[in-house]
């Protein structure tokens, strides 16, 4: 019971901090907007992908990208807490390290999903066909995607001492995951090099983006994998990353 | 009755460097116990082990009867800690920080409001409780941390350098809270400090720690008694010359030179002060200033370690200068 209360407390803290940070919320509009409007319009001249316009095609990808970038970025909260000492307050609290990790992970995931929802709403403005049912179906996929990704961010951050080094590592991971996920261009097909397809098989974001496309684009999209398969892979990914993260947080000098 | 804290050959090594060396101390229930020593002496490491942040390399300790290695959670529930460095969330309000703490420590929901109001009152922060921490001064933050450390009614409160980097008024204030705590609440306090005045004023017993070892342990008064006589401090450019000349002419119990200051421990300081001035004049030593005082813990430290207490590696502590240096960092 007290563990659950502890998890809730830490979750609440992350969410409160996030919601108070207006600059972060407002600025979170812009990057996806740039990708969708500028990149999406610019690339259009090189042709559509099947029945889909480029904007439609990359829209689920940009949701995936937002989830990826924000989730990884959340690791910064760990370094922040170390830097400003708050980590010590949590570490001496009478709750287990697993709960500390879970509370933080769930809080950061909530924040990341809120960012994802903001991009989803942008889709309405860009004239992509969306409705409430799609929104409700997309939510659990977003959550499953962020759990694992946030765990990666938190795990890495738990080994880092400075914001700078975390930034470097983060971009090392973000861009390859993003480019090799099919978010911007297909990673399956006759014209796609074999190595690209192979590498994308090992990228959790590939399955997340595929699942998002299956739901958002409906019949216009030919899924790479059945939805249940994507979800199973994401669940496995979450379980592995949460386990690793819990261990990373349990280290005691 | 059981002891509040008992350590058994508590040792911590960092990469072969011994920070705490086979420490054996026992702290009574209800006492204020001071750990006095320079930076790097092992005070914070000791406290960190007692608070279960660090694992001992060898040895162990019992805190409130719980083992710090095998019963960490119980230890944590029964203690409150105010860290040397700030450890509050500056994006939340004071009250939110306290509620978060109460939840983490399992304070029953129904009791939280009463307790939080009470600790806020104790540190006089009721009217600022709903402001975001960022708007607090460092003294207010420290007060809030003390309040936080008390929210779950710990049996032992650890204060790691509670007044470091604070201005004299705020220090005085915080000292009053600590004294107040002691009178009004049945609480054991362990505090570390490198300020002599702080240890002397607040503690029932003081352990002087240096290089991870206890060099002396007793009440401040008893410790001072080990030094008989008065201390005459002379500031002069020729401190060393003065030291040797004076030592040759009058009976000095102890003497030493730090920077441009010579200190003599003598019996009957009032008479001998005049003699020292006379000797200096005869030997053409110009005295900048001279003063007489009773021995304090600084002298005790010097007596046991042979060194002046240092604020940072290499430098000596000179009261306010040291505070300022900390504040800048």
List the helices and strands and how they pair.
The complex is a heterodimer of chains A (253) and B (329).
Chain A: H1 2-20, H2 22-27, H3 30-44, H4 54-74, H5 76-83, H6 86-91, H7 97-125, H8 132-159, H9 163-179, H10 194-201, H11 204-217, H12 227-250
Chain B: E1 5-14, E2 17-23, E3 26-27, E4 32-36, H1 43-50, E5 58-63, E6 66-67, H2 72-78, E7 79-82, H3 94-104, H4 109-122, H5 138-151, E8 156-160, H6 168-184, E9 188-193, H7 196-202, E10 205-210, E11 213-218, H8 220-225, E12 230-236, H9 239-249, E13 254-258, E14 261-266, H10 269-282, E15 287-293, H11 297-305, H12 320-328
Parallel strand pairs in B: 4-9, 4-10, 7-8, 8-9
Antiparallel strand pairs in B: 1-2, 1-3, 1-5, 5-6, 10-11, 12-14, 12-15, 13-14
Helix pairs in contact in B: 3-4, 3-5, 4-5
Number of strands of chain A: 0
Fraction of residues of chain B in helices?
25-40%
Q: If you average the pLDDT of chain B, what whole number results?
A: 84
- In the sheet with the most strands of chain B, the strands line up as 7-8-9-4-10-11
Kindly report the oligomeric state of this protein: heterodimer
Low-confidence stretches of chain A: none
Return the average pLDDT of chain A rounded to an integer. 88
Give the CA-based shape of chain B: elongated
Rg of chain A, Å, rounded: 18 Å
Report on this model:
The complex is a heterodimer of chains A (253) and B (329). With 253 residues, chain A is mainly alpha-helical. The longest helix of chain A is centred in the middle third of the chain and has 29 residues, at 97-125. Chain A contains twelve helices and no strands. Chain A has helices at residues 2-20, 22-27, 30-44, 54-74, 76-83, 86-91, 97-125, 132-159, 163-179, 194-201, 204-217, 227-250. Chain B is an alpha/beta fold and 329 residues long. Helices cover 39% and strands 26% of the residues of chain B. In chain B, the strands form three sheets. Chain B has a six-stranded mixed β-sheet, sandwiched between helices. In chain B, helix 3 (94-104) packs across helix 4 (109-122), helix 3 (94-104) packs parallel to helix 5 (138-151) and helix 4 runs antiparallel to helix 5. Residues 311-329 of chain B have low confidence and may be disordered. The interface between A and B is medium-sized, with 27 and 27 residues.
């Amino acid at each position: 019971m007290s563990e659950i209360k502890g998890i809730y407390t830490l979750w609440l803290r992350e969410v409160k901090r996030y919601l108070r940070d207006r600059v972060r919320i407002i600025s979170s509009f812009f990057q996806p907007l740039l990708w969708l409007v500028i990149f999406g319009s610019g690339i259009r001249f090189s042709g559509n992908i099947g029945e889909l316009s480029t904007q439609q095609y990359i829209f689920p990808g940009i949701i995936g990208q937002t989830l990826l970038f924000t989730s990884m970025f959340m690791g910064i909260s760990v370094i922040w807490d170390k830097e400003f000492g708050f980590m010590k307050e949590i570490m001496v609290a009478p709750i287990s390290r697993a709960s500390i990790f879970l509370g933080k992970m769930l809080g950061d995931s909530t924040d990341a999903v809120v960012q994802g929802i903001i991009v989803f709403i942008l889709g309405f403005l860009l004239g992509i066909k969306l409705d409430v049912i799609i929104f409700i179906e997309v939510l659990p996929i977003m959550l499953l995607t962020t759990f694992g990704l946030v765990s990666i961010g938190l795990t890495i951050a738990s080994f880092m001492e400075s914001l700078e080094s975390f930034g470097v590592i983060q971009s090392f991971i973000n861009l390859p995951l993003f480019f090799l996920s099919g978010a911007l261009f297909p990673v399956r097909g006759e014209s796609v090099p074999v190595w690209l397809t192979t590498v994308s098989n090992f990228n959790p974001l590939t399955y997340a983006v595929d699942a998002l496309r299956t739901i958002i684009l409906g019949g216009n999209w030919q899924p790479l994998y059945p939805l249940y398969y994507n979800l199973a892979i994401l669940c496995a990914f979450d379980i592995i990353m949460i386990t690793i993260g819990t261990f990373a947080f349990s280290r005691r000098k | 009755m059981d002891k509040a804290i008992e350590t058994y050959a508590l040792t911590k090594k960092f990469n072969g460097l011994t920070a705490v060396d086979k420490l054996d101390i026992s702290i009574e229930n209800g006492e204020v116990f001071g750990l006095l020593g320079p930076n790097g002496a092992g005070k914070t490491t000791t406290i960190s082990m007692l608070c279960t942040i660090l694992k001992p390399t060898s040895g162990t300790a019992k805190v409130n009867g719980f083992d710090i290695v095998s019963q960490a959670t119980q230890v944590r529930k029964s203690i409150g800690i105010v860290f040397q460095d700030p450890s509050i969330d500056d994006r939340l309000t004071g009250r939110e920080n306290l509620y978060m703490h109460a939840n983490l420590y399992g304070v029953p929901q129904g009791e939280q409001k009463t307790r939080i109001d009470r600790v806020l009152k104790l540190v006089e922060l009721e009217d600022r409780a709903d402001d975001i921490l960022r708007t607090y001064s460092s003294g207010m933050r420290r007060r809030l941390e003390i309040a936080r450390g008390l929210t779950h009614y710990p049996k032992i409160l650890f204060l790691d350098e509670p007044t470091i980097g604070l201005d004299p008024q705020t220090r005085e204030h915080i000292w009053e809270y600590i004294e107040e705590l002691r009178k009004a609440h049945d609480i054991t306090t362990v505090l570390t400090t490198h300020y002599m005045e702080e240890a002397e004023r607040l503690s029932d017993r003081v352990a002087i720690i240096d290089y991870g070892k206890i060099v002396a342990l007793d009440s401040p008064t008893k410790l001072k008694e080990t030094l008989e006589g008065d201390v005459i401090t002379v500031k002069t450019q020729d401190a060393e010359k003065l030291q040797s000349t004076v030592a040759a002419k009058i009976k000095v119990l102890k003497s030493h030179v730090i920077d441009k200051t010579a200190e003599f421990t003598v019996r009957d300081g009032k008479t001998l002060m005049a003699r020292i001035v006379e000797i200096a004049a005869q030997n053409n030593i110009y005295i900048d200033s001279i003063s007489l005082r009773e021995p304090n813990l600084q002298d005790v430290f010097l007596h046991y370690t042979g060194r002046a207490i240092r604020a940072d590696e290499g430098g000596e502590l000179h009261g306010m200068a040291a505070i300022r240096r900390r504040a800048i960092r």
